[in-house]
Structures are given as C-alpha cells and as structure tokens.
Please model this.
Amino acid sequence: MAKDGIGARVIRKEDERHLHGRGRFVSDIAMPGLLDVAFRRSAVAHGRIRGITKPAGLEDRVFTAADLTGVNPILANSGIPGFKTSNYPALATDKVRFVGECIAMCIAPTRAEAEDVAEAVGLDIEELPAVVDSLDARRPGSPLVHDEWGDNLFLTTAVNGDIDDLAKTAPVKVSRELTTGRQCMHPMEGKGVLAYWDFQAGQLVVYTSTQVPHMIRTGLSETLGLDQAKIRVIPPDVGGGFGYKCVLQPEEICVAWLAMTQRRPFRWIEDRREHLTAGANSREHHYKLTAYADERGRLLGLDAEVTVSVGAYSVWPFTACLEAAQAGGNLPGPYDFRVYRCKTFSVATNKPPFTPYRGVARPGVCFAIELMIDAIAREVGRDPMDVRAENLVQAAQMPYTNVTGKHYDSGDYPESLRMAAGLIDVAGVRKRQASGEPDGRRIGVGFSTFTEQSAHGTKVFASWGIPLVPGYEQATVRLTPDGSLEIRAGIHTIGQGLETTLSQVAVEELGIAFDAVRVTLGDTASTPYSTGAYASRGMVMAGGAVSRASIELARRIRRIAAHLMQCSEDSVELKDGAIYSGKASISFADVGKAWYLRPEQLPDNVDTMGLEVTEGYKPKVDSGVFTYSTHAAVVAVDEDTGQVELLDYAVVDDCGRMVNPMIVDGQLIGGAVQGIGTALFEESPYDVHGQPLASTLQDYTLPGAFEVPRMKMGHIESPSPYSAHGMKGVGEGGAIAPPGAIVNAINDALKDRGVELTRIPATPERILEALIRAEEKAASEAVA
Model:
C-alpha cells in the first residue's frame, strides 16, 4: 500500500474549504442582472385548473405553462410491460395533482419580491377528490390521479414462486402487516439552480445542485429541445444529495427555459417549506407478509405483497417503479431460502413524486424481513440472534445466488452478527434485562442484517427498462508539466469525499504524492461522461476508472523515465512521490518537463498519446457488488411516556477493501443517523384531502445530537472478486438497517407486555397506543 494510497486514513481534501466557510454553493453565485424566481404552487392536492390570472402591471414577470412554448413534459417511461405513462409538466397544465405542484413562475430582483408577485397570481381551481392512501388508491372506484388510466397503478410486478405446496406442509406460519412512514430527504442544502446564456460559447449554462450533471444535461436537452452541445451543466459544491438530487426537477427546466429565452441570468433556491411540501418524498411502503419455517425457525419460504405510494408522477430517469421493483427484488435480504412469491404495486397518489432516497427501498424491506425473523424466533421460542445466525447465508456458501437472482460475491454474514453482538455485550444486556432497571424502564436489544447491491451495472438497469442506462464509467488522468496530477471525472461529490478517495486510488497506482493530485468533478464541459453519483457507485465505478487510467499513465511514465535514467523499463518503480531505478531517481516533474517542454529528451518509442489518459471501466460482473452489514441496538423504553432512548449502537460493515477507513466510518455514522430518524422520528403525514401536515421543522422531527448515541464501529474486509482493488459501495448502507434493529429492540423490551410494533416511525404515541391495546387484550382474555 502506498503511504497515502488505498487503506490510508487521509484527511479529506474537501474539509479545508468547507470548515472555513469557503465552499461555493448555488446560492453563493451571483452575477450582474441576476433575477430571482419564486413559484406559485398548488394549495390543493387534486384539482382542475379553470383559469390563471396574471396580476395587472406585472404580466411580464409571470410565466405559466402557456408561455413555455416548445417545452416538453418530463417523460420517465419504463420498458417493463404494463407500465403506464404520466406526463409531468414543468408547470401544471390542465390539472394539479399534489399540494405544491408548480403552476406559475414569477421573477423579480429579489426572492422576497418574486414571492410577492407569486401571491398576487389569481388561480381558479375546481377542487377534485384526492386519493391519499395507497391501499385505497388500489380499490375500484377510487379517485383517479390520471383520468386516462382507468386505475391508479403505474405498474404491477410479480415473482411467482411456488409457495402453495409449502404453505400446506410448513410447521410454522407467521403473518404480519407492516408499514413504513413517508419521508423527506433533508440535505443540508436544498435544491438550487442558476442559469444564464453564455454568448461567447453559444451555450445555456446551468449551475445546479445535482448528483448527476451529465444526466441533467440530457434531460434538459429532451425537455427544452436544445442540443446537448449547447448546454453546459456545472454542479458547484453540493450540500448533500441522498437521491433527491439525482432526478430532473421541474424547477430546473423552468429556470433553464427562462435563461434560454430571456438571455439573462435567473436563480431559484429551494426553501425548507418547499422541500417539505413539494419536494420529492420516499419510503411509504405497506407489506403483507407470510413466512414459512421449520420447528427451529429455519426460514423455508416467504409470501409477500408490497404496496408503494409513489406519488403523482414518474420521475426522470429512474421512473415511478424503481422503489417497488427494488423492494420485490431485495426483500429476501441476506437469508438462505428457496421459495419466494411477491407481488408489488406502484400506486399513484395525490402526493409529490417519489425519488430515490439513500438505500432505495432497502430500509423498508430490511425493516420488514428483520421484524419477520424476530417474529419467527418468538413463535418457535428461540433467541432471535440464534435464529438469525442460522438463516443467514453462510461464508462457505459464497459466492451465492439468492432466490431472486442476486449474486452475492463475498463475505461472512454470520460473522458480522457475532461481531455486532460482541460490541454491545449482548450477554450483559440480557443480565440487565433480568435484573430490571432502577427507574422502571424496560431494556431491549435488537439486530438487523442486510445486503446492499451497489454499483449496479448495465444489465441491471437495462432490465428495469429505465430511459437512461449506465455503461462504462470514464475518468481522465493527466500529468502536468510540473509533475502534478489532474483527475477529471464526470461523477460528482455530494459530501462523500470523492476528491480524496479518487486521489488515493491514483496515489496507489502511480506512487505520486497525495498533495500533488487535483480533482475536477461533474462539469459537463471538462469531464468525461458519467451518469453520476447514486447507488453507492462512486468508488467502484469512478474509482475503477481512475485506477485503470492511472495504470496506463504509469506505463507511459515508465517508458519516458527509463529513457531519462538510461535503464530498462522493468526496473522503474513509481513510489513515495518519485520515480526510481535502483538507487537512481528522478521526479514526476522531470517526466512532465520532457514531454511538454523538452521533447528532444523523449525516447524514439515514446507513446504519442502523451501523458493524458481517458479510460472506461465497469466490473467484470456488472450486476453489482454486494456489501453487507449488521447493526445492533440497545434501547430503554419508558412505559409511561412511550419515550425511547438509544443506550448503545453498533455497526459492523463489510464494503470490501476500504479506500479510506475514516471516510467509511463517516458514511456509516451519517447514514445510521438518518436511519434512526426513519425508525423513531421522521414522517410526512397527509390528511384525507392530501394536505401535508408537516410543512415546517416544528412538525417534521429530525434526530439531533441528543438522540444519537456514540456508535461502535467494526469492519470486515472481504474484497469483491469482480471490482478493481476489491472495492464495494458504502454510501447508502448505514441508512438501511437502523429501523429493523431499533424496532426489534423496542419489541424485545416490551415482549412481556404483549407488544409488537409493526409501523415506523415508532413514536411515543404509537408505543403508548400499542401498550394500551395490549392491556385491553390481556384484560379481555382474563375475563374470557
């Protein structure tokens, strides 16, 4: 390993500017003539637009769908048979389909003035009945989100395993209905876009807070009817993405259209209320599950029905069926069983559209399968940890292809469970339970194990039928005349430290000094094409591309260096920031100088492609590599208040070879905090009319420092046999397991009271309701 290469805990390059307030986000960008944009949004969840009136004297400051001539709606179609198309207009046309949908955009020198103009826009909307609950939306006769469909189903899919024979013979049968709450993503920086027309380049230039700049350029081209060569997308610093920023947003189209047609700069910055009410939502699932097991709790088969409330429209490019498709494919998780039947429903409702959110469906399916494992354990009278360990895919079975065709490449799942149990001292927790707490609270322990398919490749995305399929990830590396290294990659950093970790990969291959590496990401004018940062693909895909390009650059450097040192190429080593042959050495600057400034020093057989290399990469098996993890939680539950305190929390993760263990820990801790929010606090509820009931952070609760315990971290490194350096993804993993671990711990604490929670977030109100129901049931049984 190079000193600052793969495996080193190198301080992040990004930290210096961010910790000193020198980051540059969309809202930091200003230019002469800039006008701010505000949107008049729908106040009803479902209605027919009868008229829009621009305020007198301000007509030139207001734009509606009728003004956006030549602008196409967002069309995110799936190639899966039966998928229904939704036309998602940048500004509403005939109907509005959720509270917060954009109807008119208004411009002014300041955002406050633009909001005043928006308030003055007159709207005549005939309110229609709204459909809010996904199960109601599936029923015949429910209000239709899209009249022409005849129902509210974007798509229905099925995995048709032969479960009927097993249902007749299995010794143990456990059935549950489980529900997960709808959530918002809440990156520190919301969405934002600034666009202007560059007269010198003849281009529309769009600064946008996005994870997928090259894809946004494609999407803008399709909706605006403008050649991609005439569009430049630049993502500045991005204050978190979490999936919210990897789809084409209506606001991006609107602001880009203004700049294209008005030929001056415009900007829109999302505020927190807009995010909470109109931003994309995620994670509203309903599960009907029946598990079949033997007398020891060995899982034999699973029968599932999954309903996902995906909102009013299909988002580009990932479509409205991504969440349910991922749920159906990933529900079996890390468990070894062979019979599986699952039907999924992607249901349109009068709510904002779903976008991918950190973990994409897996926090829901992990919650569901992990609660089922504990329920089976209680049914057969065994410790859930023991039942879980026996059901997990064993290390000797690797590589393992599961019941849905997921190819688990490497790892030791039971070992992660054992390590997590050790970190929280599960034996000590059981003793504490037996002796009771002095304050009367009840203690519980819970586990949750998952697999995460990361860096999905061409075959996987093509099978989903989405409009844009990722292929080879590209990266460019270039040695400069002074011996520095420039890396250019089309992926973008959203907080995950890619400027640092991509540098470490180059250091590993080239032996160049870490401080001599500079990284440019995302800008469509200066980086190779990439579909962007999502699905934990950064280090596997972009890291693999940098590795491959660096290997080729190293070969070219060795040839020149061998000539300069008058030695054989085989004797040349690149290490410790210099180039060696035995005791002789030269600098990287000597090689750069020879190529760029002193070509008379070059060998006759020099590679004429020079010291700049662009390479494409995808893993040998491109169906994705699989990380896995076990989380363990210890909780204390107050029966009088329903309050839950996290006493201890452990994470044991295997993301293959860790490029920077410090960054891995940061990703896991940050993700786990989001998962704690999913488990205990975060929810976007709606009333029966489709009105959002959490429109401020007073109503939508996020976990803070007091709600998060100090986390204990453990690591296993099982390199993937398919990826460069054995790397796997880690960006999404931390957020997947907490709901299952925490709710299992709550149920463990309250099992003697006959309580079993099946819905998240597990708020104090829901815990108290469950305790009351358990008491009423016990009283009724006592009377009987």
User: Anything to note?
Assistant: The mean pLDDT is 97. The chain has 19 helices and 29 strands. The longest helix spans residues 538-565. The first strand starts at residue 35 and ends at 41.
